[in-house]
Amino acid sequence: MTAHRGTRAYDVAVRAEALLGEGPTWDPATGSLLWLDILGMRVHTYDPSRDHRSVRTTEQHVGAAKPRAGGGLVLNLRDGVGLVDPDGAFRWLHHQPAPGRRGNDAAVAPDGSLWAGTMRYDEAPGGGTLTRLTGDGSTRTVLPDVTVSNGTGWSPDGRLMYYADSPTRRVDVFDHDAGGIRNRRTLVEIEEGAGFPDGLTVDADGCVWVALWDGGAVRRYTPAGTLDRVVELPTARTTACAFGGPALRDLYITTARVGLPTAPHPLSGSLLVIPDAGQGLPQPAFAG
User: Fold this and answer.
1) Given 105, 165, 172, 198, which residue is catalytic?
2) Which of 63, 179, 227, 243 is the one with CA 20 to 30 A from 107?
3) Tens of pLDDT, residues 11-58
């Protein structure tokens, strides 16, 4: 099967210069998209219906921000996972500082638990983890000894979990049941020269969309691991993707400008969007 390659399929949702744009997440309660600048310590909110933008700064590098069921946000920070209440007050849910390590990508599972990844700043092999947290703050490490814990998502029926530890160049798939995972196997391996799998999302057809760091593209893979769509983008460091908009039809894509060996493209660090890219799945809020 030949993958369909998009040409100028994207629009610019928010022109920005984020050092490490990441973590797009649609919040249906507010009709807005959350996205981050990890190294800039900013949580951005974008309402496409009004073209309205706001920014919340954090005191630490922030790897993920997700809506909570009762309002507010859960944040995956350098020193652990914290909660922002609806009135803006902050408190720690799980505080576990580790020198040289920070929180990275995170996702909310169908049962409302948060699966929060970590990595070392120097990207030392095995220096990161993937941990499951529930609303009462209880934790369980589900994957130890990962390197750069990144995209995590679930199939429409919740029975499969997809996961990328970026330096492996793989998107892996697990059987998922009652908050546990087993039977790890490879869904797809990204070929040399095409970049590294970063953030990902799963659509209503069960296909996996993967942003490629140093690949300047987003790819869509079928549940069988077949590549069926490539959207090429002008920014080499494509970091993550998520469906948003009232009908969950638009694919939002974050980008980064940090560490590029040559002058970044003018859109590096911006939030891009592919209108009517497909049908996304409603994402659960964190049950805490």
Assistant:
1) 198
2) 227
3) 999 999 999 999 999 999 999 999 999 999 999 999 999 999 999 999
Residue pair 127/166 in contact by the 8 Å Cβ criterion: no
Cα torsion through 95, 101, 106, 112, rounded to 10: -20
Q: Does residue 16 contact residue 267 with C-beta atoms inside 8 Å? A: no
Judged against a pLDDT cut of 80, whether residue 6 lies above it is answered with no
Instruction: Give the C-alpha separation, 205 to 281, whole Å.
Output: 9
Measured CA to CA in angstroms, residue 259 lies from 12, 134, 206, 213, 225 at distances of: 22, 35, 33, 12, 31
Report the Cα–Cα distance between both ends of the chain, in Å, rounded. Answer: 44
Contacts of 116 (CB under 8 A, 6+ apart): 63, 64, 76, 81, 103, 106, 130, 131, 133
CB 196, CB 178: distance < 8 Å: no
Residue 198 among the catalytic residues: yes
CA distance 33 to 26: 4
Residues contacting residue 252 through CB under 8 Å, at least 6 positions apart: 13, 24, 26, 33, 35, 241, 242, 243, 244, 271, 272, 273
Please enumerate in sequence order all residues whose Cβ is within 8 A of that of 177, keeping only pairs 6 or more positions apart, or say none: 159
CA distance 17 to 25: 19
For residues 198 and 176, give the distance between their C-alpha atoms in angstroms, rounded to a whole number.
21
pLDDT of residue 261: 83
CA-nearest of 29, 34, 69, 64 to 288 is: 69
